[in-house]
Design goal:
Low-confidence stretches: none
Order of helices and strands: EEEHEHEHEHEEEEEEEHEHHHHEEE
CATH architecture: 3-Layer(aba) Sandwich
CATH topology: Peroxisomal Thiolase, Chain A, domain 1
Largest sheet: 11 strands, mixed
Radius of gyration: 19 Å
Number of helices: 9
Number of domains: 1
Strand content: 25-35%
Oligomer: single chain
CATH class: Alpha Beta
Length: about 350
């Protein structure tokens, strides 16, 4: 457990962008009509968005950030920190995608630019890292770009992952504010002993890519992929997801002495509805406090919290003060929860690109 309490930082805005093309669960060739219906009943996913050839995640984050600059009126040279949170980097080794976005957005060259290669848990880690760097006041404003193009590292022939996920990118503004009354509170953790639970194996240094890495192999009926594409141990993921996130949230509340039932919303990573509903019920939260974006966006990895904010509770976030708990979990294995107050933030509708 790593508890952080970060003062003097305010959450100021969020924007989300998705590709226009839509992937429909019921149209996937490895499903019969009954199987597709059963899949949707369990996961909650009806459809999601998938990036066309040539589009990168940084393209989506660029659109989201441009919209946030437009709607807030922030000057680009006021950004002191940009963090790109994703495994869908423009270049897997170098350079950092944050630097590419820094240039495309016209940010000052004095701005700190860094990448955090997290997947599903990344949004919480991005918030924690950015806020930690800002709390002393030397960095006044930060831009966090988070999301994933899961369509780039998954097999279209893998029924265990392909119909569940969607592509999306986001932009979030944080601002140094010594008058902020509510600290940001975090509980972060990880367990590297289970790294194989979710893995793209042959795309790095430990297991280098070879010609054989491209060979598509049949793993089981309805599951075909190569060694570079994402593999997920469904039972291990399920066991992890129904136990660790709920515990993480309860530890956060206990350590910082707040009551979970008093929050306005639990913004939870859109893993799948069966998992998230188990967490909701474990925390004894009513359905209206746990919004879902997964029906028409799927599991968008580190963008699932921003896309839920933009698509489900935008009006409430813009209208006044909201007491939020955010929780995300995924590969690594890694997880995190944050207790954050927002006050009339800029929250744009989901943009289709």
């Amino acid at each position: 457990m790593a508890f952080l309490e970060i003062r003097n930082v305010s959450f100021k805005g969020v924007a989300t962008a998705v590709p226009k093309p839509v992937k429909v669960v019921g149209e996937q060739p490895f499903f019969t009509a009954v199987e597709a219906e059963n899949f949707t009943n369990v996961t909650g996913v009806v459809s999601s968005h998938v990036a066309p050839p040539g589009m990168t995640l940084s393209d989506l984050c660029l659109v989201a950030a441009e919209k946030l600059f437009e709607d807030t009126g922030w000057l680009r040279d006021s950004i002191d920190l940009i963090i790109f949170v994703s495994t869908s980097r423009d270049f897997y080794i170098c350079p950092n995608t944050a630097n590419i976005l820094q240039d495309k957005l016209g940010l000052a060259t004095s701005a700190v630019a860094l990448d955090l290669p997290f997947a599903c848990s990344g949004y919480i880690y991005g918030l924690g890292v950015a806020a930690s760097m800002m709390q002393g006041g030397q960095l006044k404003r930060a831009l966090i770009c988070a999301g994933e193009l899961t369509s780039r590292n998954q097999s279209h022939l893998d029924r265990t992952v392909w119909p569940l996920h969607g592509d999306a990118g986001s932009a979030t503004f944080l601002e140094y504010n010594p008058k902020e009354q509510h600290p940001m509170q975090f509980n972060l953790g990880g367990d590297g002993s289970d790294w194989e639970t979710i893995v793209c194996r042959e795309v790095g240094v430990r297991f280098p890519t070879t010609a054989d890495s491209l060979d598509i192999k049949k793993i089981e009926e309805g599951v075909e992929r190569n060694a570079m594409q994402c593999a997920m141990n469904g039972m291990s993921v399920f066991s992890f997801a129904i136990s660790r996130p709920g515990k993480c949230i309860m530890e956060l509340a206990g350590h910082f002495n707040f009551t979970i039932s008093d929050i306005d919303y639990l913004l939870i990573h859109q893993a799948n509805k069966m998992i998230d509903e188990k967490i909701r019920k474990k925390l004894k939260l009513s359905e209206d406090k746990v919004p879902y974006s997964m029906p028409y966006y799927g599991n968008t990895s580190s963008c699932s919290i921003p896309v839920t904010m933009s698509s489900q509770i935008r009006g409430q976030l813009e209208a006044g003060v909201n007491n939020l708990v955010m929780c995300a979990f995924g590969s690594g294995l890694s997880w995190g929860a944050a207790h954050v107050f927002t006050d009339s933030i800029c929250c744009t509708p989901v943009i289709e690109v």
